[in-house]
Amino acid sequence: MGDATALPYPDESFDTVGMFTMLHHVPTRALQDAILAGALRALRPGGTLIGSDSLPSDRLHQFHEGDTYNPVEPAAFLTRLQTIGFGEITVTVSDRLLFRARKTPGSGV
């Protein structure tokens, strides 16, 4: 088991980082942002973060009873990614939250 807030990879190791339906399992927004920042650090310039997550819902809240359930607020997610240092961001809200963001030259590490 590892710690997604402290990825054990050198800076600029990957062209792509993916995270799928997992952010809502992270207990705080600060830890979610640390995971996103770690992804930025691990990406090469021009690299892409791709991901998805569930949207907030009462049904999922009940499903996660006794488990961590901290859904991402879609309206704030674009700004969060920008603040962390990502560029060329696309956030789509449909039956789930979909996102794509790039590490632009000079961002992050």
Key features of this structure:
single chain; 109 residues; alpha+beta; four-stranded mixed β-sheet; 3 helices; 28% helix
Q: Can you summarize this structure?
A:
Helix content is 28%, strand content 28%. It is of the alpha+beta class. It has a domain at 26-48 and 79-93.
Structural write-up:
- With 109 residues, this protein is an alpha+beta fold.
- It has a domain at 26-48 and 79-93.
- 28% of the residues lie in helices and 28% in strands.
- It is built from three helices and four strands, in the order βαβααββ.
- It has helices at 29-42, 58-63, 74-84, and strands at residues 14-20, 43-53, 87-93, 97-102.
- Strand 3 (87-93) and strand 4 form a beta hairpin.
Detail the topology: elements first, then pairings.
Elements: E1 14-20, H1 29-42, E2 43-53, H2 58-63, H3 74-84, E3 87-93, E4 97-102
Parallel strand pairs: 1-2
Antiparallel strand pairs: 2-4, 3-4
Major sheet description: 4 strands, mixed
The topology string of helices and strands comes to EHEHHEE
Distance linking N and C termini: 25 Å
Shape: globular
Number of helices: 3
Oligomer: single chain
Q: Percent helix among the residues?
A: 25-40%
Q: What is the mean pLDDT?
A: 91
**What is the number of E strands?**
4
Low-confidence stretches: none
Estimate the strand proportion: 25-35%
Radius of gyration over C-alpha positions, nearest whole angstrom: 14 Å
The spatial strand order of the largest sheet comes to 1-2-4-3
Structural class estimated from helices and strands: alpha+beta
